[in-house]
Amino acid sequence: MQALPYAVPAAAALAYLNGRHAFTYDWSLLSSLISGSVSGALSQKRDDLNLFNILESHARSSRRDHTWIMFEGRSWSYAEAHSIVLKYGTWLKERGVEKNEVVAMDFWNSELFIWVWFGLWSIGAKPAFINYNLTGKPLLHTIKTSTARLVLVDENGRGKFTNDVMTEHGLVARPGDAGMPEGRQAKFEYEDEPEPLSSSPKQKVESQIQEAAGNSQPQSRKLEIIFFDQGLENYIQSLDPVRQPDSVRQGQKLPDMAMLIYTSGTTGLPKPAVVSWSKAYVGGKFISGFLNLKRDDIVHTSMPLYHSAASVLGLGAVLCAGVTMCLSKKFSHKTFWTEVRASKATVIHYVGETCRYLLAAPKSPLDKEHNVRLAWGNGLRPDVWEPFKQRFGIPTIVELYGATEGPGALFNRSTNTFSTGAIGRNGTLAELVLGRNLEVVRLDPESGSTEPVRDAKTGLCQVTEWSEPGELLHKLDPADINAKFQGYFGNSKATNSKVLRDVRKKGDAYFRTGDMMKRDQDGRWFFVDRLGDTFRWKSENVSTAEVSDVIGKHDAIEEAAVYGVLVPRHDGRAGCVAATLKDNQAPHAQTLKSLADHVSKNLPRFAVPLFLRVTKEMHKTGTNKYQKHVFQKDGILVDQIEQTGDVLFWLKDGTYERFTAKDLQNVEGGGVKL
């Protein structure tokens, strides 16, 4: 049969239009979003938003024997997990936990984390995930701000809750229950806290809701801590799997709190972010669709479950798709690929600098011996992106941008180099639908202020041009902020600080991300810097992200964090790099000269780091994000830096040389002009 004369040109035209406007890409993005949103709305109408119900539906379906969780060589099907979760719910009811009560969890990654989490949901309670890296004041702060009276801790965390530690931070030991085995329970009272505003479970729930809205400040005086050991786990497993009635899980709306997840605390004490049922339910449905998870997919994560990326978007998406999660206790580049191969994982999850660590590990003939078709997460830096894909033979990267407390996110599925390094991508249709909820507003580059520039006549914010950096904002309903942004639990001041008014028109409202972004005319979004990370030097703004990308491409650099430091008798802040060298090698003269040449060649003169701090170990959060403030507080104070075992260098005569106490005296005395 003869081909139609117009078929070839028509196909070419369609291909061109699709390439120009990204219709097929947008269809995947928008259809996943619409499907998730519709599912959430229908679930709210049925009054079954609690994700325990999804676990139960799988356990009662043809998927009942399909593996849900894999951990350290063991696996549990959906039906097995459902039964265990009910047993944990039964035990929690024995401990007096009631509907809507907040219970704090301090657990490392394990199946136990999941049983406790879903056990709480099965009885209508709300988990508060505690970062297991926290100790002392930050740990007690997170527990206190959760308003929990009950804290559940695995064996790894026992040493953080000794009587001496608790007494040091204002708690007084009380006698435990006579029926509890010695060493499994501890009880305390807050020494300086007022009596709770309410004591009955119902009043407590109402108080918590009021507090979340900023209307009151309830605090529980009593604190009970239960440590999980094998004996307790065996006891719980011996219980009958009693299913609580639907009523304990009902009465929830999409904006209502599903759990508390804390901010990373990189610049201060962690804040409890309210994670709504909308994020948990719609987010899980959307991610499962956008990643195109299939019935035989196995998703591997070694990221901590206390973080929303691994829990809400990771395990939540796996649950919504009815597939399998392979969980690792903790990330290690030495065991990562071994676990991925053993589990036959098809999707891997990363956060922060995870991919950089994997790329920095010694090469192996087995680098491409795996079943991985896709890597997804957030924080994959542009300088790592393509080398990571090529070395490990991973065809697709799905990068996302968002915050636990934020009302929206950006997504980029990248299968070629067009969107390499972009944190988000929208085609023409997606921009019409989603772009209207986003704005990038101009900041004043001269003043260095973190407040947006406003029009002198209208008082409204100035919107940036294409590819011009500015702060990313998400549109909110000014009459109902809580619909999209639930804020920080019990902290109305912090919540209100994230809302910006009168942006495009009088009376409107937007969520401040605190991140500098730029977008281009091809629909790509690029991260520029965290607001406040950019510093001024020589009357120019220096982007720490830009400098980090350049330095990270030098062969000797393992990791690098860039920040500004105050220099005596100089205006602004000079650039400083805290870096670890590959194989922890000593900073030889040849390496220092090569690094100086590299940054001088690839950066504007004002952005070239004048100081280099060589360190053995980077300070970072549990999700592999750098804590630059730890280095920044030392500035260029040589004695303080060397007490930590680090060495400081400065750019002099075309290379980095050792910076000494005498050099600092010369700078302070005005004898040196940088």
Features:
Luciferase, domain 3; 8-stranded mixed sheet; Rossmann fold; single chain
Write the layout of secondary structure elements.
Layout: H1 7-21, H2 23-46, H3 52-59, E1 67-71, E2 74-77, H4 78-94, E3 102-106, H5 111-122, E4 126-129, H6 136-146, E5 150-153, H7 163-168, E6 171-174, E7 185-190, H8 201-212, E8 222-227, H9 230-238, E9 257-262, E10 272-276, H10 277-290, E11 298-301, H11 309-321, E12 324-327, H12 336-343, E13 347-351, H13 354-360, E14 374-378, H14 382-392, E15 396-402, E16 409-414, E17 424-425, H15 428-434, E18 438-441, E19 470-476, H16 492-497, E20 499-501, E21 509-519, E22 524-530, E23 535-537, E24 540-542, H17 544-551, E25 557-566, E26 573-581, H18 589-602, E27 611-614, H19 628-632, H20 638-643, E28 647-652, E29 655-658, H21 661-668
Parallel strand pairs: 1-12, 3-4, 3-5, 4-9, 5-8, 11-12, 11-13, 13-14, 14-15, 26-27
Antiparallel strand pairs: 1-2, 6-7, 7-8, 9-10, 15-16, 17-22, 18-19, 19-21, 20-21, 21-22, 23-24, 25-26, 27-28, 28-29
Helix pairs in contact: 2-10, 3-4, 4-5, 10-11, 13-14
